[in-house]
Amino acid sequence: MSSTSTLSLQGLRKTYHVEGQALPVLDDINLDIAPGEFVSIVGSSGCGKSTLLRLLIGLESSFDGRILLDGQPVAGTGLERGIVFQDHRLFPWLSVEQNIGLALENSPRSPKEKAAAIAEHIALVGLEGFEKAYPHQLSGGMSQRVAIARGLVNRPRILLLDEPFGALDALTRANLQQELQRIWQQEKITMVIVTHDVDEAVLLGDRVVVMEPRPGRIKRIVPVAVPHPRSRSDARLARIRDDILRDFAQAEAPRLAEHPAEPRFEDYAFAW
Questions:
Q1: Beta-bridge mates of residue 29
Q2: Residue 247: which of 204, 215, 213 has the closest Cα?
Q3: Domain range for residue 261?
Q4: Worst-scoring range by mean pLDDT, 14-18, 86-90, 268-272?
Q5: CATH number of the domain that residue 168 is part of
Q6: Angle subtended at Cα 189 by Cα 183 and Cα 194, rounded to the nearest 5 degrees
Q7: pLDDT tens, position by position, 199-226
Q8: Residue 107, pLDDT score
């Protein structure tokens, strides 16, 4: 595996402009991610966590602050950063191996080396025997395995994951979380996952970055000092999860207190 890299976010700010009005999305994000670390970023809707991932992959070019990879500014997309989205985004007319091979289009490797890399990563995600299968022949979990293989086949130094299991059923999601732990330990790659699922964030991350919204800021960073591989039934993980969930409960409390009283039945007008 390629050597992993230090990722540094310094004073990161992002603002969108909507109908002439400035809409701050991220404000003063400072975070250093060590080589080989698994960092989870968790927060409620609107905290800018997916925007943050888009900045890291290079899909957004307008921002303030600095994003550094081994001390060098990140500019645009690059083979050293892979990404997996919530939607697997497989091309339906291409087979499993062809979908994975798309990531190698700009690679200088020989055809033989590319074929070997594709086979290696199909094995890595446990899809041997499905090389010639098409997306419509795969389950949602299998399709997401293809997306993970595609994200890794270029041997990136950092893999970014944007709610990769959010669209899956609970059992498939749990299985793929365990698989992702295994792949991370085997490949020793830096991984950054954005999720709204606190259980997932704590199960996978060495640290959990808790964000608060409007604009998105880092509220705190919680270390998860539990060795890998982890079991979701571990009481230590449950305590950390409950601690983080209290942050969200506190954030929601003022809104709940200000919620207007529920209207009475006689306040409604019905067309009968």
A1: 12
A2: 213
A3: 7-80+156-267
A4: 268-272
A5: 3.40.50.300
A6: 80
A7: 999 999 999 999 998 899 999 999 999 9
A8: 84
Whether residue 32 is contained in a domain is answered as: yes
Please report, as a single letter, which amino acid is at residue 136. Answer: H
SS (H, E, C) the chain: CCCCCCEEEEEEEEEEEECCEEEEEEEEEEEEECCCCEEEEECCCCCCHHHHHHHHHCCCCCCEEEEEECCEECCCCCCCEEEECCCCCCCCCCCHHHHHHHHHCCCCCCHHHHHHHHHHHHHHCCCCCCCCCCHHHCCHHHHHHHHHHHHHCCCCCEEEEECCCCCCCHHHHHHHHHHHHHHHHHHCCEEEEEECCHHHHHHHCCEEEEEECCCEEEEEEEECCCCCCCCCCCHHHHHHHHHHHHHHHHHHHHHHHHCCCCCCHHHCCCCC
Number of domains present in the structure of the chain:
1
Residues forming a β-bridge with 10? 66
Question: What is the average pLDDT across 78-105?
Answer: 91
Q: Residue with structure tokens 């550094």?
A: 68
